[in-house]
């Protein structure tokens, strides 16, 4: 795969992050019920992580792959109840992990030609995957306690 192709994949990842952040912030505003405050706080905290992921992907695309970071956004999912919010976002996080694992695989296959970028790309994507896995665990915990 060429660097240009890798930048395209990372732009798809960036668009997923844009969508995820907006989705979490929107969902946080429709939560109600007994433990609303704790759930709202968690959703907003995760949205903050997604913003950091955007920054990571933007930097990898722009500074390490000479690409132009996307201003687009992947489609978002509606949800009405707290259970729906948690389920929809767990599914979204799992999708992101699947996509990012695919990108990590490509990066590793390109190791030879990414002599001056490899560790930054590998570490950046791996760190984001690790945090999405944390998000899945946190959301599952909230869903399980209901
Ligand atoms: Fe993310
Ligand atoms: Fe996430």
The biggest beta sheet reads: none
Number of domains: 1
| Percent of residues in β-strands | under 5%
Unreliable runs: none
Count of alpha and pi helical runs: 4
The end-to-end distance, rounded to whole angstroms, is: 45 Å
* Annotation, overall tally of beta strands: 0
Write a short abstract of this structure:
The protein is mainly alpha-helical. It is 75% helix and 0% strand. The chain is elongated and about 55 Å long.
Structure description:
75% of the residues lie in helices and 0% in strands. The chain has a single domain (3-144), classed as Ferritin, core subunit, four-helix bundle (Ferritin, Up-down Bundle). The longest helix has 29 residues, at 36-64. The protein has 146 residues and is mainly α. It has helices at residues 3-28, 36-64, 82-109, 118-144. The model has no long low-confidence stretch (mean pLDDT 97). The chain binds fe (ii) ion (2 copies). One fe (ii) ion binds at residues 20, 46, 50, 93, 132, 135.
